[in-house]
C-alpha cells in the first residue's frame, strides 16, 4: 500500500504546475479560450515541449509514460491551472492512434506538429457507443462516412480527426484530414465542434474496435476526474481564503459556523473524489476498469457540481462575476459532468454491469 | 500508487478469514446479521474464543496480552470481523480504557485491570455524557470531592452503553471549579456495586435497551482509582477522541450492509418486478456503492499516512462523517426496499409468520437505531468543528 507519487510523477506534476503558474494566468486563458482557435498555440507548444503529450504514450510507442497514472497526474495539474487547452482530445486520439499502429502520426502530434481530436458522440448518443448511427461504407474509392457527430472536444483547428462509425461489423474507427466543422467555444472555455458528414472520405484504422474506443473514452474519463480533483482542490482553497478575508458584521465570515460546516463538507467530498480517481487510475489495466471508471465519473459528476455550487454561494455576489477566477473554476467543474457521459449515464453503466443477486 | 496490501498483509488477512470461518459460531453471526440484540453471554463467548487466540485486544501491545498488531493489521482485522458479522466486543474496556491505562495509567493499575478486561471478568462502561453535558462535554458537573483516602462522587451520567452488562464504569468527573472548565476534570474508575451508585435503563427509539443513566449519591471511590493526574481528565478524553479510532469509517459494516441489500433486493418483488430490477433502487445502490468504494480508498490513504507517521489531525473526523453518512444511507435503502412489509413490529411475529425474509424483519428498528451513528462518539457537527478548526486556523 503506497499512495505517494513516484519521484518522476512528482517532478512531472511540479514542472507542469510551475509552467502554468508562470505562463497561463486567468487573463491569458480568458483571451484564448473563447475565440478561434479557442486555445493558446504558444501554450500548446509549451506543453508539447514539456513532454506533456509524450507522457500519454509508452516508451514502445515513442513516449515516456502511457499509464492511467500519468494521465491522472497531468490532468490534476491541468485542472488546478484551469487549463482550457485541447489536451483531452489529444489524449484519446493518441491512445487510439497507438492502438491502430499509427505511431508515425502519434510521434508528430506529441512533437506539437499538428493536433488530433476524437468524434464519437452524436445528437442522440452521449455515452453508450452501441447507439451510434453514423455509417461507414466501403466504396471503390475507399471508405466514406455519413452521419452527424457532436461534442468533438478540441476539434477546431485540429489537422486530424478520428471518427467512430458503424461498419456493419461493429463500431469502426476512421481517420480524416481536417473536415469542415461547425466550431464553437464551450461555455467553460475551450473549443468544441459538431460535424455533418455526407460521404466524407476517410481512412479505416479498424472496422470493428469498440473495445479500443471504450478504453480511450475511459482514459478520457479518468482525465476528466483528475482535472476535477485539481480544480476542486484549488477552488476550495480559494473559498477558505475568501471566507477568512471577507468581513461582514465586523468579523471575518469564516468565523461563522454555518459557513464553516459547508466548507468541511466540500473538503470531505474532495477527498472522496481524490480517492475514487486514484482507484480508477490504479486499476485501469485490471478487469474492473469499466466499473471503477464509472464509479469515479458518477461521484465526481455529482460532487464536482455540489462543490462548485457551494463555492459560488459561499463567495456571494463576487462568485457570480466573470472577473473572479473562482467563477470559472466552478463553471468548469459543473461542465465536466457533461463530458463523456454524465453521472446518470454512468449510473446506468454501473447498473448494467452489476451481477444479478442470487 | 499501490492500492494493494503487501503479501504479508494479505497472508494475515487470509489467516483472519480462515479463523473467522472456522471459529465464529454460526448462530451468533446470524443474530448479528439479522440486527438482533446479543446476550451478554453470547458476546463473552466470542470474546473468549478470540482471547484464546490472543486476538481479543487488537490495539494492545504483546506485553499486556495484545497481539502487537500495526495499524494496517488492526484495520484488516476489524474489516474482516465486520464482513463476517462477528459481534463487536465490549469496546469500552478493550478499545478505550485499555489504551488509556497504557498511556496514562500506573504499572500497578495496568497489571490489576488489563487482564480482567482481556478475559471478560470485568465489563466496563463509560460515564462521559451528562444530561447537561453532551457535545459540550467540558461543562460536566458530576463532582468528585476529596475526603481522606476517597473521592466522594455526586451527580448523574447518561447514555451509558450496555451499562446493564457492566460491573465497572470509567468516568469524567469534576475535581475542580477553578480556571477553564476543561482544567478541572479527572478520569476516575468506579465499581458499579459501590454504595450510592444506581443504574436505570433508557429505552431507545427502536424499543431496545442499549443505554442507561447512572446516578451517583455520595459514592465513595478510593483515590487509587484516579487515572493520570488529578485534573488531567480532559487530556485523556481528547486523546481517545483522535487516537484509537480504528474502523471509525466502518467500511466493513457498510460493505456487509450493501451485500445484504443486494441479496434482499433479489428476493423481494414489488408491483410486478424484483427490487433488483427497479431502476430507482438500483441507481441509489450504485451511487452509494461509488461513495463506499471512495471511502475504502480514503480509509487506506489515511491508514498509510498513519503508518508513515503523519499527524492524524482531522482525518478521523473526516472518516467518521462520511462513514456514518454511508452507513445511514444503506439502512435507509434497506428499510425502504421492504415497502409496506417494514411495518410489523418484529417481536410480535415469529419468523415463520412473516411474509418477507426473516432476516430482514428488523429493518425498520435497525434503521432507527442507526440514527445514533451521527450523534454519538462526537456528533457529526462536532466532527465538522474539528475539521473547520484546522481549515480556518489563522
TrEMBL record, chain A:
InterPro entries with a match to the protein in the record: Acyl-CoA_Oxase/DH_mid-dom_sf, AcylCo_DH-like_C, AcylCo_DH/oxidase_C, AcylCoA_DH/ox_N, AcylCoA_DH/ox_N_sf, AcylCoA_DH/oxidase_NM_dom_sf
Cofactors demanded by this protein: FAD
UniProt GO MF annotations: acyl-CoA dehydrogenase activity; flavin adenine dinucleotide binding
Superkingdom, taxonomy of origin: Bacteria
Pfam families the record matches: Acyl-CoA_dh_1, Acyl-CoA_dh_N
SUPFAM superfamilies on file: Acyl-CoA dehydrogenase C-terminal domain-like, Acyl-CoA dehydrogenase NM domain-like
Domain Acyl-CoA dehydrogenase/oxidase C-terminal: 212-329
UniProt keywords, alphabetically: FAD, Flavoprotein, Oxidoreductase
Domain Acyl-CoA dehydrogenase/oxidase N-terminal: 6-108
Record flagged with keyword S-adenosyl-L-methionine: no
Family the entry assigns: Belongs to the acyl-CoA dehydrogenase family.
PANTHER family: ACYL-COA DEHYDROGENASE, ACYL-COA DEHYDROGENASE FADE28
Name the record gives this protein: Acyl-CoA dehydrogenase
Source organism of the structure: Paracoccus homiensis
Lineage of source species: Bacteria, Pseudomonadati, Pseudomonadota, Alphaproteobacteria, Rhodobacterales
UniProtKB/TrEMBL annotation, chain B:
Entry superkingdom: Bacteria
InterPro entries, A to Z: Acyl-CoA_Oxase/DH_mid-dom (IPR006091), Acyl-CoA_Oxase/DH_mid-dom_sf (IPR046373), AcylCo_DH-like_C (IPR036250), AcylCo_DH/oxidase_C (IPR009075), AcylCoA_DH/ox_N (IPR013786), AcylCoA_DH/ox_N_sf (IPR037069), AcylCoA_DH/oxidase_NM_dom_sf (IPR009100), Mycobact_Acyl-CoA_DH (IPR052161)
Domain Acyl-CoA dehydrogenase/oxidase N-terminal, chain residue ranges per copy: 7-120
Cofactor(s) needed for function: FAD
Span of domain Acyl-CoA oxidase/dehydrogenase middle: 125-218
Entry keyword set: FAD, Flavoprotein, Oxidoreductase
GO terms of molecular function: flavin adenine dinucleotide binding; oxidoreductase activity, acting on the CH-CH group of donors
A Pfam cross-reference name: Acyl-CoA_dh_1
Domain Acyl-CoA dehydrogenase/oxidase C-terminal: 231-391
GO cellular component terms, A-Z: plasma membrane
Similarity comment: Belongs to the acyl-CoA dehydrogenase family.
Name of protein: Acyl-CoA dehydrogenase
Organism: Paracoccus homiensis
Amino acid at each position: 500500500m503506497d499512495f505517494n507519487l513516484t519521484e518522476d510523477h512528482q517532478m512531472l506534476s511540479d514542472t507542469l504546475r510551475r509552467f502554468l503558474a508562470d505562463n497561463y494566468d486567468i487573463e491569458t486563458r480568458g483571451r484564448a479560450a473563447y475565440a478561434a482557435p479557442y486555445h493558446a498555440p504558444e501554450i500548446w507548444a509549451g506543453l508539447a515541449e514539456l513532454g506533456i503529450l509524450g507522457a500519454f504514450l509508452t516508451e514502445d510507442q515513442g513516449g515516456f509514460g502511457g499509464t492511467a497514472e500519468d494521465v491522472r497526474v497531468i490532468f490534476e495539474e491541468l485542472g488546478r491551472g484551469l487549463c482550457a487547452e485541447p489536451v483531452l482530445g489529444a489524449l484519446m486520439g493518441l491512445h487510439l492512434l497507438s492502438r491502430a499502429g499509427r505511431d508515425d502520426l502519434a510521434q508528430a502530434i506529441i512533437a506539437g506538429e499538428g493536433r488530433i481530436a476524437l468524434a464519437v458522440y452524436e445528437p442522440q448518443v452521449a455515452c453508450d457507443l452501441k447507439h451510434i448511427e453514423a455509417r461507414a461504407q466501403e466504396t471503390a474509392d475507399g471508405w466514406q462516412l455519413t452521419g452527424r457527430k457532436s461534442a468533438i472536444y478540441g476539434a477546431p483547428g485540429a489537422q486530424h480527426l478520428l471518427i467512430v462509425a458503424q461498419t456493419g461489423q461493429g463500431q469502426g474507427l476512421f481517420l480524416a484530414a481536417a473536415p469542415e466543422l461547425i466550431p464553437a467555444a464551450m461555455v467553460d472555455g475551450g473549443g468544441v465542434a459538431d460535424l455533418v458528414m455526407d460521404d466524407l472520405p476517410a481512412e479505416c484504422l479498424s472496422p470493428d474496435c469498440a473495445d479500443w474506443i471504450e478504453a480511450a473514452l475511459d482514459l478520457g474519463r479518468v482525465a476528466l476526474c483528475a482535472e476535477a480533483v485539481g480544480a476542486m482542490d484549488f477552488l476550495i482553497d480559494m473559498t477558505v481564503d475568501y471566507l477568512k478575508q471577507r468581513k461582514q458584521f465586523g468579523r471575518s465570515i469564516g468565523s461563522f459556523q454555518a459557513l464553516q460546516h459547508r466548507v468541511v463538507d466540500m473538503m470531505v467530498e474532495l477527498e472522496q473524489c481524490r480517492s475514487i480517481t486514484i482507484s480508477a487510475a490504479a486499476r485501469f489495466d485490471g478487469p474492473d476498469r469499466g466499473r471503477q471508471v464509472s464509479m469515479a465519473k458518477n461521484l465526481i459528476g455529482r460532487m464536482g457540481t455540489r462543490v462548485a455550487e457551494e463555492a459560488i454561494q459561499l463567495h456571494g455576489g463576487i462568485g457570480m462575476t466573470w472577473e473572479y477566477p473562482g467563477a470559472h473554476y466552478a463553471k468548469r467543474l459543473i461542465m465536466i459532468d457533461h463530458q463523456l457521459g454524465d453521472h446518470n449515464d454512468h449510473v446506468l453503466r454501473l447498473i448494467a454491469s452489476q451481477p444479478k443477486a442470487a | 500508487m499501490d492500492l494493494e496490501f503487501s503479501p504479508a498483509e494479505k497472508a494475515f488477512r487470509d489467516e483472519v478469514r480462515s479463523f473467522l470461518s472456522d471459529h465464529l459460531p454460526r448462530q451468533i453471526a446470524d443474530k448479528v446479521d439479522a440486527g438482533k440484540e446479543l446476550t451478554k453471554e453470547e458476546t463473552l463467548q466470542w470474546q473468549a474464543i478470540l482471547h484464546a487466540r490472543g486476538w481479543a485486544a487488537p490495539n494492545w501491545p504483546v506485553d499486556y496480552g495484545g497481539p502487537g498488531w500495526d495499524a494496517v493489521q488492526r484495520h484488516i482485522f476489524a474489516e474482516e470481523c465486520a464482513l463476517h458479522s462477528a459481534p463487536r466486543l465490549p469496546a469500552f474496556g478493550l478499545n478505550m480504557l485499555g489504551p488509556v491505562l497504557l498511556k496514562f495509567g500506573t504499572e500497578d493499575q495496568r497489571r490489576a485491570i488489563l487482564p480482567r478486561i482481556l478475559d471478560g471478568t470485568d465489563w466496563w462502561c463509560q460515564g462521559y455524557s451528562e444530561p447537561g453535558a453532551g457535545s459540550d462535554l467540558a461543562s460536566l458537573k458530576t463532582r468528585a470531592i476529596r475526603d481522606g483516602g476517597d473521592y466522594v462522587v455526586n451527580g448523574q451520567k447518561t447514555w451509558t452503553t450496555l451499562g446493564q452488562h457492566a460491573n465497572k464504569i470509567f468516568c469524567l468527573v469534576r475535581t475542580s471549579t477553578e480556571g477553564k472548565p476543561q482544567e478541572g476534570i479527572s478520569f476516575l474508575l468506579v465499581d458499579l456495586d459501590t454504595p450510592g451508585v444506581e443504574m436505570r435503563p433508557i429505552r431507545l427509539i427502536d424499543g431496545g435497551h442499549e443505554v442507561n443513566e447512572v446516578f451517583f449519591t455520595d459514592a465513595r471511590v478510593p483515590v487509587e482509582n484516579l487515572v493520570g493526574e488529578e485534573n488531567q481528565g480532559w487530556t485523556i478524553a481528547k486523546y481517545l477522541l483522535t487516537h484509537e479510532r480504528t474502523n471509525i469509517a466502518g467500511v466493513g459494516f457498510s460493505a456487509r450492509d450493501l451485500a445484504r441489500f443486494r441479496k434482499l433486493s433479489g428476493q423481494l418483488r414489488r408491483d410486478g418486478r424484483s427490487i433488483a430490477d427497479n431502476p430507482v433502487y438500483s441507481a441509489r445502490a450504485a451511487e452509494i456503492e461509488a461513495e463506499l468504494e471512495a471511502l475504502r480508498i480514503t480509509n487506506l490513504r489515511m491508514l498509510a499516512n498513519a503508518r508513515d507517521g503523519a499527524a492524524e489531525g482531522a482525518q478521523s473526523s473526516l472518516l467518521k462523517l462520511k462513514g456514518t453518512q454511508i452507513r445511514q444511507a444503506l439502512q435507509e435503502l434497506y428499510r425502504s426496499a421492504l415497502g409496506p412489509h417494514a411495518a410489523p413490529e418484529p417481536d410480535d411475529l415469529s419468523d415463520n409468520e412473516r411474509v418477507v425474509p426473516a432476516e430482514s424483519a428488523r429493518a425498520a428498528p435497525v434503521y432507527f437505531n442507526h440514527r445514533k451513528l451521527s450523534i454519538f462518539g462526537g456528533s457529526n457537527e462536532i466532527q465538522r468543528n474539528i475539521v473547520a478548526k484546522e481549515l480556518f486556523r489563522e
